[in-house]
Design goal:
about 220 residues, alpha/beta, about 20% strand, globular, binds 5-O-phosphono-D-xylulose, binds fe (ii) ion, metal-binding
Length: about 220
């Protein structure tokens, strides 16, 4: 199956967000990646469930919500009600990761787990059977336009192995610094979903940008 592309609206023009989302959907995006930042877990603030609920009616595409917030349990139901299809929480932000993942499931949303570049991959092994998405940050979270950290791909390879050994079916996604140059290494390592913000929204031709990332050769 071909690699899925998830444009991150963090790099979109927010004054015309509807057009920006329609443009990438038209260009072949599979998911819309929505970066929620609280100014505590990461040194940046973006938006919350109110903005998500105005995006929801624009598309049937999967809304992939990446929560970069402390104590995400407090907001799971609100993001579920606002229309998230996937909610991904940081292993570093959850005091009781298993409980948080189950709260997401109980809210009727697909649960995902994400880790920062310096977090050991072993942290997520006990939760793999409960998640539908494993996201590896290939930059330190907080901002778009940063440089890809290739060492993270060793963690991707380990997750691919565990998925096989345990007979599981979660998707593997990477986020940060993905562009037409770095996409090949990610796909070779076994990534299923590529998040890309600046490499798509900084280009005029969004379809062209998506195609270049997906068909990296
Ligand atoms: O979660 C984040 C950043 O914390 C990302 O989703 C960025 O939005 C990716 O941006 P690029 O690195 O692709 O520009
Ligand atoms: Fe993200």
């Amino acid at each position: 199956m071909s690699t899925k592309i998830a444009p991150s609206i963090l790099s979109a023009n927010f004054s015309i967000l509807k057009e920006e989302i329609e443009d990438v959907i038209q260009g072949g995006a599979d998911y819309i990646h929505i970066d929620v930042m609280d100014g505590h877990f990461v040194p940046n603030i973006t938006f919350g469930p109110v903005v998500l609920s105005s995006i929801r009616p624009l598309t049937d595409a999967t809304l992939d919500v990446h929560l970069m917030i402390e104590e995400p349990d407090r907001y799971i139901q609100e993001f579920a009600d606002a229309g998230a299809d996937i909610i991904t929480v940081h292993v570093e932000a959850c005091r009781h990761l298993h409980r948080t993942i189950h709260l997401i499931k109980e809210a009727g949303v697909k649960p995902g787990v994400v880790m920062n570049p310096a977090t050991p991959v072993e942290m997520i092994k006990p939760i793999l059977k409960d998640v539908e998405l494993v996201l590896f940050m290939t930059v330190n979270p907080g901002f778009g336009g940063q440089v890809f950290i290739p060492e993270v791909l060793e963690k991707v390879q380990q997750a691919v192995k565990w998925r096989e050994e345990l007979g599981l079916a979660f998707e593997i996604e990477v986020d940060g610094g993905v562009n037409e140059m770095t996409a090949k290494q990610c796909i070779d390592a076994g990534v299923d979903v590529l998040v890309a913000g600046s490499a798509i929204f900084n280009e005029q031709d969004r379809q062209g940008a998506i195609d270049k990332i997906r068909n990296h050769e």
